[in-house]
């Protein structure tokens, strides 16, 4: 009788992100894993760190020569919000990917040790396998929700799939003299960033540096593009979308003040649905929104159902909890002040602040 198989002990180490072979192994692991996402790809967290002046890191757990768990991080430093290990940075997803042979507890312990070594008092895991709630780890179960649903079979079915009131807004947008551009050229990027900057200032949020958006588009190649809505030649709404496993994810988007009266945002998302289906997509992932926020209700108006998300936050013993919540009383005043800034000033100083938000 053969002896029972005893798996090799699991070892946790830092990945060598300067090694192309290591990067290829991580990309392959993410591609195979059923819960892999764009935000687990080295093309995301390495590009994001480089573009924002932060540091990319990844913990790998192996049994022999096989990866059994993977936890990517961006180590983010902000003079406003402090230091943070985010999995992953500037993303709505990430967290630990593990197989049945993994030992998640030892990966979380390694993450805590890494955070202390880097003087990061906070870890944020935005999905994936999560640690149990404890004195140091806090689980947030209903602060955010995701919205996704299948795309329809053709253009007319897609329109009819939208609830009646929102469909009326889309029909109004189709009657407007709007044009659509799709691409990743310098002209597409410049038009998007102009709209994006105005949109973020109007929301009271420091805008991300353009280098961040460019880095992600470059890293994702054909798996990313920009759709821009124009009125009389001027960009009024624009969105950068990611494509992954048959789903389109509109990620960084916005509109000018004129976008509302022109229904340009409605036209943008409807055109993206049509464009994504023609690319071969079957799912529209509208992404994450804070529960009961304006964006949360806007997505429900399109017929999307809210799927509550669970995130985990670790705070080093003796440290204060990180406060980067835009609805907190401390930050709500700062948001109102930012909304009053001249656009030129907001565009100059916003990226310096935003690269540390994470």
From TrEMBL:
<dbReference type="InterPro" id="IPR038740">
    <property type="entry name" value="BioF2-like_GNAT_dom"/>
</dbReference>
<dbReference type="Pfam" id="PF13480">
    <property type="entry name" value="Acetyltransf_6"/>
</dbReference>
<feature type="domain" description="BioF2-like acetyltransferase">
    <location>
        <begin position="167"/>
        <end position="300"/>
    </location>
</feature>
<dbReference type="InterPro" id="IPR016181">
    <property type="entry name" value="Acyl_CoA_acyltransferase"/>
</dbReference>
<dbReference type="InterPro" id="IPR017469">
    <property type="entry name" value="PEP-CTERM_FemAB-rel"/>
</dbReference>
<protein>
    <submittedName>
        <fullName>FemAB</fullName>
    </submittedName>
</protein>
<dbReference type="InterPro" id="IPR050644">
    <property type="entry name" value="PG_Glycine_Bridge_Synth"/>
</dbReference>
């Amino acid at each position: 009788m053969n002896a029972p198989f005893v798996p090799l002990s699991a070892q946790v180490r830092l990945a060598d992100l300067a090694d192309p072979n290591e990067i290829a192994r991580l990309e392959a692991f993410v591609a195979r894993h059923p819960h892999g996402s764009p935000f687990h790809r080295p093309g995301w967290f390495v590009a994001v760190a480089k573009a924002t002046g932060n540091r990319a890191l990844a913990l790998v757990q192996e049994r022999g020569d096989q990866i059994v768990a993977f936890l990517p991080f961006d180590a983010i430093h902000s003079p406003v919000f402090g230091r943070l290990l985010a999995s992953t940075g500037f993303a709505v997803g990430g967290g630990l990917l593990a197989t049945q042979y993994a030992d998640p507890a030892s990966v979380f312990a390694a993450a805590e040790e890494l955070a202390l070594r880097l003087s990061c008092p906070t870890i944020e895991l935005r999905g994936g396998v999560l640690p149990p709630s404890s004195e140091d780890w806090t689980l947030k179960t209903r602060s955010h929700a995701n919205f996704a649903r299948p795309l329809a079979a053709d253009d007319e079915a897609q329109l009819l799939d939208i609830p009646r009131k929102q469909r009326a807004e889309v029909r109004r947008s189709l009657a407007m003299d709007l044009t659509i551009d799709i691409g990743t050229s310098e002209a597409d990027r410049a038009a998007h960033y102009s709209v994006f900057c105005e949109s973020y200032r109007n929301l009271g949020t420091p805008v991300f540096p353009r280098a961040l958006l460019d880095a992600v588009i470059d890293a994702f190649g054909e798996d990313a593009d920009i759709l821009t809505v124009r009125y009389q030649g001027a960009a009024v709404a624009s969105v950068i979308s990611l494509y992954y496993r048959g789903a389109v994810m509109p990620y960084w988007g916005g509109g000018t003040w004129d976008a509302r009266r022109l229904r340009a945002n409605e036209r943008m998302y409807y055109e993206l649905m049509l464009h994504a289906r023609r690319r071969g997509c079957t799912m529209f992932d509208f992404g994450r929104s804070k529960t009961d926020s304006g964006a949360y209700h806007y997505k429900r108006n399109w017929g999307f159902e809210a799927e509550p998300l669970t995130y985990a936050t670790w705070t080093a013993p003796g440290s204060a909890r990180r406060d980067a919540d835009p609805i907190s009383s401390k930050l709500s005043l700062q948001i109102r002040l930012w909304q009053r800034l001249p656009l030129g000033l907001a565009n100059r100083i916003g990226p310096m602040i935003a690269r540390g938000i994470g």
